[in-house]
Amino acid sequence: MSAVAARYDVVVIGxxxxxxxxxxxxxxxxxxxLVLEARARVGGAAVTREFxxxxxxxxxxxxLYGLPASLDAELGLAGHGLRSAAERxxxxxxxxxxxxxxxxxxxxxxxxxxxAAFDRRIARFAGYLAELHARVPxxxxxxxxxxxxxxxxxxxxxxxxxxxxxxELLRIGAMNAYDLLDExxxxxxxxxxxxxxxxxxxxxxxxxxGSVFTWLHRLAGLGAGGGRGLWCPQGGVGALSAALxxxxxxxxxxxxxxxxxxRILVEADRATGxxxxxxxxxxxxxxxxxxxxxxxxxxxxxxxxxDAGFVRTVRHLRNTxxxxxxxxxxxxxxxxxxxxxxxxxxxxxxAPSMDYVERAFDHSKYGEWSTAPALEITLPxxxxxxxxxxxxxxxxxxxxxxxxTVAGGWELERPRLMEALLDALERHAPGxxxxxxxxxxxVPPDIEREYGIAGGHWHxxxxxxxxxHLLRPTPGARGHATPVPxxxxxxxxxxxxxxxxxxxxxxxxxxxxxxxx
Length: 517
Ligand SMILES: Cc1cc2nc3c(=O)[nH]c(=O)nc-3n(C[C@H](O)[C@H](O)[C@H](O)COP(=O)(O)OP(=O)(O)OC[C@H]3O[C@@H](n4cnc5c(N)ncnc54)[C@H](O)[C@@H]3O)c2cc1C
Known about the structure:
Layout: E1 4-13, H1 17-28, E2 33-36, E3 48-52, E4 55-58, H2 69-75, E5 84-86, E6 91-94, E7 100-102, H3 112-133, H4 145-160, H5 163-173, H6 177-184, H7 188-199, H8 211-223, E8 232-233, H9 238-250, E9 254-256, E10 261-267, E11 270-276, E12 281-289, H10 293-302, H11 308-315, E13 323-330, H12 341-344, E14 347-350, H13 354-365, E15 374-378, E16 393-400, H14 410-428, H15 432-435, E17 436-442, H16 444-451, E18 487-489, H17 503-515
Parallel strand pairs: 1-2, 1-12, 2-9, 6-14, 12-18
Antiparallel strand pairs: 3-4, 5-8, 6-7, 10-11, 11-12, 13-16, 13-17, 14-15, 15-16
């Protein structure tokens, strides 16, 4: 038996951004907190990495849209070095005929009047969702006053929308984005780009029921962001994680990297600490895991500590990802047909119509990728030259859809998908291929390996109505608690899901502090 090295009030497993937020909040509340990160650096999927000599990119999340301004202010992230490289990034849709469409809202918006009315309506619904995101979901049917209060609060928020909006939210909430957009707009490029946003990071196509909900989820994040819109920190998304680590340390937390947790220790049916891969044991009154729920509950805790029904439920949680990441090191700035320099610094999407996105999705159902992929492209080094050598540039793209398992296997298919992606880009950026000096493509099994997310899913667990709010991560979940006293979850697999928002981490800290009041 190995010696016990130390005792803490709280051990946080994983220094993903949610783990860091949770640790910072607990340390600020006076808890002696230790964060243990398996990998050599903090951030999880919110990280900046050198993917080719001299070229760095945000190799997981590459654009921020959901970090609440309130969290930024609470932790004083500017004081910990967080700077914005670019904010309110415009979105430009690249069309097959070489033209472009400006799909942003505003005075020059496509179908301006319809767009303005729609955006106002949808913003009210997203605002309601943002309120739910910021709070720990209640449990149903308990005598606990805090559960009843939360339930009432959620109901009151809905009631506040008014009868007409409440009815409309119920109507569209479970609808698909395709039908909603089709009944609202005419323009295929506008509908394509909006439908792409609705399904980004999910296992949905625009016609999948629930894709309006996943869109509202994203818009809720944007609405709470304090007007920054889509933005990127100086130094890439990893700079946010570095600022969160600094905030956690300043609050008194200890952060250890290269410290993989092998298992969660349980004594007398209660979590009592963790054991690292090298056998070191660390005791803690509370263990909080920012790793995904399947990793935490099935691998680190182990089925023997859980009842068979719960284990079955956890095994069946949907967690395989469909989003891939492409990173290109370019020896010069690409020229993209029809895109002026200001728009080149923003977000470019290849999603020219809803049918295009749906067809790309169709392939994924059968373990295939599409030769006509939907892409979200950024050129972060244009606004932040620190990411590439002088004159050279980085292209970072999220690719939909790359199934976790492909017929033929990824060893064979990865280079073929890479070729298809370069072809797709070359159509809009003639000559781009010749400027590529290095390329990296991360498909979901790579994301699983690189970031330790079982299944490689953007949200750890699929974001869908049946895995949301009081049903997340499992039906009957007790907020961030697990069936084992003393063990909590704080990552994207909990309410309100993924994206770099810090909300799961903040909510978990509040929940844990309430438990010990
Ligand atoms: C391809 C892709 C693109 C994305 N793009 C965007 C985007 O542009 N914008 C956006 O907002 N979101 C994006 N996301 C989603 C976002 O990156 C995630 O939802 C978010 O980073 C999850 O954060 P987390 O802290 O909950 O978990 P993670 O970031 O997964 O952190 C969990 C941490 O736990 C650690 N860990 C796991 N097991 C152990 C162990 N046994 N011991 C110790 N440590 C362990 C891991 O190493 C990791 O550091 C994207 C996701 C993917 C996959």
